[in-house]
Amino acid sequence: MPGYQRVLLKLSGEALASPDPLQNDRHGISYDMLQKLVADIVSVRNLNIDICLVVGGGNIYRGVSGMAQHKIDRCMADSMGMLATVINGIALQNALTNAGVPTRLMSAIPMPTICEPYACHRATSHLKNGRVVIFAGGTGNPYFTTDTAAVLRASEMQCDLILKATKVKGVYCSDPKQNSDAKFLPNLTYQEVKLRQLKVMDATSIALAQENQIPIAVFSIYEEDGFKKVLQSSTEFTLISAS
């Protein structure tokens, strides 16, 4: 197993909605999915690996689509989306705490009655003290995705790897749900992702990961213990790196 000491797991908001990948309703928070995620996180924590989490908010409110559907100003829509990530962060923190995992929720948008304001040195201290740290509120700024927030926090925390949880086992040359002949791509460079315009993460995220030389593993959130299996290289996933 590679010598990972600190990793960041990026979860979409939709991943919290339902453990059934075929279910169309991607809203709300599923108790079963929370328990599945907690079990996955505990199994990795037992390997003595520091864990950071960044969670999206699409199961509650997605800024870009909300802007189009409801004619909301982009900055306001993105603010609503960032607040949605805090709701998901609270749910994850509660589930982890109930499982006996010391956890801290930190938000890029200060709201001290609910969670800690994000500060790099305090987050690093929490990790050194064995706590799981959940980063919510995106970057705290509109026009940036939670994927960008994930790479930013991974860079600040000096993580060895970013794990991007998706609905499928990795990156394909095209959408496997629409194209049954889509080819699975186990290894990609940052440059290939950008040139081929693969939609695994937005261009800003990939550029930031490339600049800071942080590899990205893309895997299925629905696989049992998939988080740990990626770290142990015992399952199929896509690795995005410099070479």
DSSP, total strands: 11
Taking pLDDT < 50 over at least 5 consecutive residues as the criterion, the unreliable ranges are none
**Helix-strand topology string:** EHEHHEEHEHEEEEHHEHE
Count, helices? 8
Main β-sheet description? 9 strands, mixed
Q: How helical, in percent, are the residues? A: 25-40%
Number of domains: 1
Named CATH topology: Carbamate kinase
Q: Biggest sheet: strands side by side, in what order?
A: 4-3-5-2-1-6-10-11-9
Oligomer state of the chains in this structure: single chain
CATH superfamily: Acetylglutamate kinase-like
Into which percentage range does the β-strand content fall? Answer: 15-25%
Q: Please give the alpha-carbon distance between the first and last residues.
A: 19 Å
**CATH class value:** Alpha Beta
**Overall mean pLDDT:** 93
CATH architecture: 3-Layer(aba) Sandwich
Task: Tag the structure with descriptive keywords.
alpha/beta, globular, two-stranded antiparallel sheet, 243 residues, Carbamate kinase, nine-stranded mixed β-sheet
In brief, what are we looking at here?
This protein has 243 residues and is α/β, with parallel strands linked by helices.
Topology (elements, then pairings):
Layout (H helix, E strand, L loop, with lengths): L5 E6 L19 H15 L4 E6 L7 H8 L3 H25 L4 E5 L8 E2 L2 H9 L3 E5 L9 H11 L4 E6 L4 E2 L11 E2 L1 E3 H6 L7 H10 L3 E5 L5 H6 L6 E4 L2
Q: Overview of this structure, please?
A:
The chain is of the alpha/beta class and about 240 residues long. The protein has a single domain, classed as Carbamate kinase, CATH 3.40.1160. Helix content is about 35%, strand content about 20%. It is built from eight helices and eleven strands. The chain has helices at about 30-45, 65-70, 75-100, 120-130, 145-155, 190-195, 205-210, 225-230, and strands at about 5-10, 50-55, 105, 115, 130-135, 160-165, 170, 185, 185-190, 215-220, 240. The strands form two sheets. The chain has a nine-stranded mixed beta sheet with strand order 4-3-5-2-1-6-10-11-9, sandwiched between helices. A two-stranded antiparallel sheet has the order 7-8. Helix 1 (about 30-45) links the parallel strand 1 and strand 2. The radius of gyration is 17 Å and the shape is globular. The mean pLDDT is about 95.
